[in-house]
Design goal:
Number of domains: 2
Structural class: mainly alpha
CATH superfamily of the largest domain: Leucine-rich Repeat Variant
Distance between the termini: 55 Å
Order of helices and strands: HHHHHHHHHHHH
Largest sheet: none
Number of strands: 0
Oligomer: single chain
Helix content: 55-70%
CATH topology of the largest domain: Leucine-rich Repeat Variant
């Protein structure tokens, strides 16, 4: 059985062998900065993840690496049962950019048993990264068919109303969440439409 350092080395070797310089350069040109970015596409990252066990220690070690692909793999290999709410907050605080936020929400956060609680907590937070993660997460939950009760729906709509005037990244995530909310039923569609029209979107 490989130890943690050996496993990390093996993963990094696979990443180097799968490197895509064109994709990496394209991200850099578009302002997506990482200390190290191999430009490995998502399907290949899924293949790499499939070759390793879901393991808390490994996922935490990968997350600490300032490498794009390691952070994406961390979310794929993190078991939900050992990913406590406090760790979720630590990961959000260390979120380097919107790309990693999207991958982490899609591969890990939306699988958490406390996902909806965190989505509401983060949407209402003061900092932009938490808000971004909150809206990305609630959008995923709506996509999975999670319908909020009336109180939660009102809270979501109140937060979204404010977010539609926030920074471009948060606004985009809020619009996306509203669109997914609108797909739940006719009432949700009308409520979402009213908000988007108010904001001139």
């Amino acid at each position: 059985m490989m130890d943690l350092q050996e496993t990390l080395r093996k993963i990094k070797t696979e990443l180097r062998l799968s490197m895509n310089g064109v994709a990496s350069a394209y991200m850099r040109e578009n302002g997506v900065e990482y200390k190290l970015n191999f430009g490995v596409e998502l399907p290949r990252l899924r293949e790499i993840a499939a070759g390793f066990p879901m393991d808390h220690g490994l996922a935490q070690a990968l997350w600490k690496e300032d490498i794009r692909e390691c952070k994406i793999l961390a979310a794929m290999l993190q078991p939900t049962e050992t990913f406590y709410p406090g760790i979720a907050d630590i990961w959000v605080e260390a979120m380097p950019n919107a790309e990693i936020a999207q991958h982490t929400v899609m591969n890990l956060f939306c699988r958490l048993p406390y996902a909806s609680q965190k989505a509401f907590e983060w949407m209402a937070a003061d900092d932009e990264t938490r808000q971004l993660c909150g809206y990305l997460l609630i959008a995923r939950l709506f996509m999975k068919g999670m319908a909020p009760n009336r109180r939660s729906a009102d809270e979501f709509l109140d937060q979204a109303r404010t977010a539609l005037h926030a920074s471009p990244a948060v606004r985009r995530a809020a619009v996306s969440a509203l669109r997914k909310y609108q797909e739940l039923d006719e009432e949700a569609f009308q409520e979402g439409e009213k908000l988007l029209m108010e904001a001139g979107l």
